[in-house]
Amino acid sequence: MDKEGKQRVLSGMRPSGKLHLGHLHGVLENWRRLQDEYNCFFFVADWHALTTNYEHPSDIPANIYDMVLDWLAVGIDPAKVTLFVQSAIKEHAELHLLLSMITPVSWLERNPTYKEQQQQLKERDLATYGFLGYPVLQAADIIMYKANKVPVGVDQLPHIELTREITRRFNYLYGEVFPIPEGLLAEVPKLPGIDGRKMSKSYGNSIFLSDSPDVVRQKVSSYVTDVERPRRSDPGDPENRCVAFNLHRLYMPDERNREIVRDCKAAKLGCVACKKELAEAVVRALEPIWEKRQSLSDEPGRVESILEDGGARAAQVAKSTMSQVRSALWNPNAG
Ligand code: TRP
To answer: What distance in angstroms lies between residue 31's CA and the mean position of ligand 1's atoms?
Structure first.
């Protein structure tokens, strides 16, 4: 618990550049809710990006800027939360090193994401020491701030489990320095990309937060609808078969959606007109994000100074944690 009686939350994202609606509804809306209730630390995991992208590190700085601009544009508020970049806080490297001493290699080899990612990213050589240690670095990120809760997607749960095991081992060997963190899963609405697959930058099926209104209109109009309704005169089944209807659920009023379902089933409403109306609703929802994004990027150095302020606050916590860690390690009876 912090002074304000709040628990600590920590989460991070690898700097993937511009974010899309999947990130907004899947992650950022959750962060935005948490920032009022918890003492939150949100950071850019740029060293983690290096574990898979070590051949192209020069892309990373621009990606950091674009991603943080999107965080701010959607309302992650630097007055409420601490925002920082991992590589600015060198203590993460020191804690990672110390944790690596006590982490059995077998725990890391068992980690399901280790083998999966190697399979998926076959064109890159991921048989590196750093990539095997990915979850050790993640554990260092989390416990550095003595986080109680770590909001993540299901895919990250094995890493949270490893963090818990490594933390227990540290506490057992050197004394109770760290709370054992817990993963925090949010309910995430389904939001497929334009082609019906999971929205992902690498599939080219995403609507980005930074797309212009006309690009958003064009992308919404390209959404797959009900493939079993090839002709306008065929009755549709939007709730079960229409990919675009997932966007309706998020962006259109329930009342209007009920009429749309009725008219689509009766073959009275065509997909072109239906998506036109939908596109306007998406554009309206994104307008405040675009405005905020614009005003932040009009101010030179704004994002950088937010990250500097956050970095200074993060460094204070990290320095204090590391002095407790060193004293537990080297003077076990002092604490
Ligand atoms: N591995 C996380 C991801 O790919 C990013 C990450 C790094 C993270 N360190 C973290 C998430 C600490 C939560 C807490 O999404």
So the answer is: 14
